[in-house]
Structures are given as C-alpha cells and as structure tokens.
Amino acid sequence: MEMYVLLGFVLLLSIFLGLELISKVPSTLHTPLMSGANAISGIALVGALMLSSAGQMQDILAFGAILFASINVFGGYLVTNRMLSMFKKK
Amino acid sequence: MENLANIQVIQNMIYIISSVMFILGIKMLGKEATAVKGNYLSALAMFFAVAITCLSLEIDIKIILAGVLLGGLIGSLIAIKVKMTAIPEMVALFNGFGGLATFLIAWSQFNEPDNSIFQHVLVMLTIYIGGITFSGSLIAYGKLSEKLKLGKGSIVTNVFISFFYLSMPAFIYVVIEPSIAGFVPQVPSYFSIFLVLTLMAGIGFVMPIGGGDMPVVISLLNSLSGIAAAFAGLLLLNNVLIVAGSLVGASGLILTIIMAKAMNRTITNILFVGYASSGQTASSEEQGEVKPITSDDAYLILENASSVLVVPGYGMAVAQAQHVVREMGELLEDNGTEVKYGIHPVAGRMPGHMNVLLAEANVSYDLLAEPEDVNPSMDTIDVAIVIGANDVVNPSATEEEGSPIYGMPIIEVHNAKTVFVLKRSMSSGFAGVQNPLFFRENTRMLFGDAKESIGQIVAEFKD
C-alpha cells in the first residue's frame, strides 16, 4: 500500500511537471507535440512486456498488447520525425 | 534470489534515467529550434526503457519478437506511406492502438489470481479509460477520414450514447463488485459485459461530436491514452510508465484547453452539447447581396496589392491547395508584395493542422502568424484571402451578441481593405452560423474549387 501512495505521488508530480513544461507551445508545433506525445504513450509497451505468461489466454493478451503498443511507438516516432523535418525556416 | 533483486535495482535506475530523458525530450519538443532533437531523445528513452525491461521476462521471447517486429513493421509502413493531408486520422489511429494496449494489459492483470482491492480498482479504471480511448479514437479516425458519416441525431448514434451513459453505473458496479460479492446476487460474467460496454461507450462518446470540434476531441483522446498508461504503470508498479504516461496526459490536456479557448467554449459544451443546442436561432437579420469576382479580376487586384494575408481553413486541406497557395505566395513576393499567413488555432481538424500542411508545401514558418499578431494591423492589409475558412473569420463572433459563436477569438479579416473569400458554395460553416463577412462591402466571393481558382491566379502571374 505504501508503494501505491508513493507512486501516486510520482504520478501527481509528473502531471504538474508536464503542465509546466508544455504550457507555452507555439501553434506551429501543436501537431508535432501531439504526435510526439502520442508516441510516448506507446510506453505501454514496457507494461506489456512485464505481463505474466500463464496459459494461452494470457499469451494472446500479451501478444496483442505488445503488437499494438509497438505500432504506436514505431509509427508515432517516425511520423513525428517526418513532420518535423518539413518545418523549415527559409 | 539476490541476483533477481539486483536486476530490479538496475532496471529501476534505467527507468529513472529514461524518465528524465522523456521529460527533457517533451520539453525540447515544445520549442522550434530543439523539436527534432527532442523527438530523438524521447525515442532513445523509449529504447532504453524497453531494452532494460527485457532483462526479466516471463512471456515467451518468440511472442515478444513476433509482436514487436510485426507491430514495428505495420507502424513504420503507415508512418512512411501516409500523406500529410491524412495526418489527423493517422494520429487518431495510433492513439487508439496505445489505448488498446493498456486495455489489454489491464485485462491480463484482471486474470491474475490474488489481486488486492486496490489493484482491482486500478484494473477497472485502466480498462475503462483505455477502452474508451481505443474505440473513441477509432470513431475519430472514421470521422476524420470521412469513412464514417453518422453524426448527431441519427438513431445509431443515440443507441451508442445510451451505452455511454450505461457504462458509468456498470463501471461503479465492477469497481465495488468484490466488496459486495457476499451480499447481492452475482451477475454472471459481469466482467465480459463490462469490457463490451466500455468499448461501446467510447463509440458513443465520440460519435455525436462534429468535425469542427475534432481538434478538441483528438487532444482529449491523446491525453486519455497517456492517463491510461500512467494508471497501468501504477498497476504494474512501474515508475517510467507513470512518468511518461502523466507527461502525455498533461500535454494532451494543455492542447485540449488551448483548443477550447480558441473556440471560446467550455470542454463540456464541446463534448456533450455541441453547437446545435447552443440555444440561439442562428440566422441573423438582412444579409444583402454577395459580390462574386472572377480570378482574372482577383489577379488584377492582387498585382497592385502591397500586403496580402492568406487565411487558410479546412477547405484548403480538402482541396489539397497548399502547394498552389505557396506558389501564389512566392509569386506575390517576387512582385514586391508582403505576404503573411494568418493561422487560427482551430482551423482544420486537429491542433496545428494548417501549420503542417503549409510546412509540407514548403512555406517558411516565420511567415505564419497567429490571430493576435495580425489583428492589430489588419487595416493596413490590402487583400485578405480566405481559403476555405468560415467560422474562424466570422465577424458575428465580435459584433453580434446573440450569435452562438459570439466571443470566439477570430481573425478579423473584415477590417482589411479587401477580402477575397474562396468557397465552393454559400453553405454555412461547421457551426451552422451564417457568415455576414460574405455580404460586406469590401468582400468579394471567388466561387469554385480553391485549388483551381488559385491555380488560375498563379497562371496569370506567370504570363
């Protein structure tokens, strides 16, 4: 239980940190920021890798979670990079 | 045993390092000069976090390799192939997959024996948020790619909306189920019912929301996918999941707020009310006549203009006119005209939509200006060219108190000396509000496809 309280604290602090970090973003970067943040939410991949393997059902769930999180991670980072490389100042 | 403990210590240390990298990465992503590096840094953080997790695996390595390789291949292919005009729906799709992953993680955790009450609550919370993110994002994808035409008012939509409301008591039931198990008759397979209801709820959540409100919805779904990941982190006692998920949650929340502010509406109004029921009868009084113009005449006026402001909207994306717009801008500059682009934060279907399109067409980003930069000097602009934008240039927002969009910050093109409005027909904008701009003394309507109309102007310039 103590562990949860501690990690809950980390969660709250991170949200506040995030709000402070990104409060002033130029509108040019709204899409890349959203897409880049979207790629980060693929961190669920780490969670998927931590799942246990007990029986076929669990294996299917783990496979699905790994598959979809990987699409999110690879696709998210690549498309953000592609988008950012278009933003140029002449 | 000691060995295992050591591995856990190393893992947690690497998790902390990659958390710091995620924090720095997302900070750098918010500034033009460092954005590319920020994205690399966050990708590197992801790599470290994933690699170190692989030190202690329970799942068969074959399953992992198959999932990562297949997922990586699909994701990369979509990202490389996608057209820049299809970015909004693609972001929605990826976002949905992230939500689905957390949904499956929590489901798997539910199947574990000996969950504590607290874990049980977290499982349900993660399933609920992850599931709504998943199916909601799929609906957003369908709407943005125009494959799904159903909207507010149809019977199907209403059915799904009732699922959305039904899912709330269902959520409360599954959360308290272990504590009341002994007292009330059990609902058989309540968990499966809850899974289905959650997915239905996501559909009902997004389906009634119209296209013009999509920037808010996408930002919100983005935020939810982060929050779901953070809860999954709490469930699995993993700090990097918590930190990274919270950062995404926060950044999505900020974008949601920026978008809502740019429409001068509250988030609840956008999500649950919509424009139609804002109360007012939209039609304003006597409108007068519109003054159409041909592209020949438009060219003659532009040739003599010394400053031009281009205001693009969703219509530019639909007509795919961004390249020809850039070409016109360059020709005008060669002709000695000062050219600027006025970008409204909610123009288009996602935050920053117009910026991405113009960047794709190679428009330098220092030419792009926000409403508060262009409005004060609007009366010095000779020609404002509105390309497929409507509500974001509607003067009712500043002048007509009864209007549903009253109070929304707009680009005040009506104060420019001349306004060209490129439009297919006289239909009103997303908000369903008639636009008095079209009937102004200084407004000229250039009817037709934006790409063709501007193409003709460009051809005239070249002659």
UniProtKB/TrEMBL annotation, chain A:
In what way does this protein cross or attach to the membrane?
Multi-pass membrane protein
One GO cellular component, as annotated: plasma membrane
| Main enzyme class | translocase
List residues traversing the bilayer.
Answer: 6-23, 35-54, 60-80
Q: What is its main location?
A: membrane
From the UniProt record, list the reaction(s) this protein catalyses: NAD(+) + NADPH + H(+)(in) = NADH + NADP(+) + H(+)(out)
For this protein, the record's InterPro entries field holds:
NADP_transhyd_a_C
Q: Which UniProt keywords apply?
A: Cell inner membrane, Cell membrane, Membrane, NAD, NADP, Translocase, Transmembrane, Transmembrane helix
Q: Looking at the keywords, is NAD present?
A: yes
Gene Ontology biological-process annotations = NADPH regeneration
> Which subcellular locations apply to this protein?
Cell inner membrane
Give its E.C. classification number: 7.1.1.1
Task: Please explain the role this protein plays, according to its UniProt record.
Answer: The transhydrogenation between NADH and NADP is coupled to respiration and ATP hydrolysis and functions as a proton pump across the membrane.
Per its UniProt record, what PANTHER family does this chain match? NAD(P) TRANSHYDROGENASE, PROTON-TRANSLOCATING NAD(P)(+) TRANSHYDROGENASE
Q: Kindly provide the name given to this protein in its UniProt entry.
A: proton-translocating NAD(P)(+) transhydrogenase
Taxonomic lineage from the root? Bacteria, Pseudomonadati, Pseudomonadota, Gammaproteobacteria, SAR86 cluster
